[in-house]
Model the fold of this input.
Amino acid sequence: MQIWKHPLKIEQMQTIQIPQGATVLCVQAQNGLPCVWFKCDPDNDLMPRRILTFVTGEECEGKGAGHYIGTYQLGGGSFVAHVFECAWDI
Done:
């Protein structure tokens, strides 16, 4: 098992490719960019995982927000985003 990092785009919905069976650990900003960290077996095949991002105050009901991953801040806290794994299958 290893800990890997994947950068995230600042958009509401995106699909990332990470090893099958990976466990998402957290999301944080690193050097001004949002990233998600996960524990994985690097020998496993890559699988798509859909990630959803909502800003504070944005409606997320009915948009597939499943498991909460975490919150990150950019610009000294002027931009705050909340990240979820999508509850719907890809």
Notes: The chain has a mean pLDDT of 92.
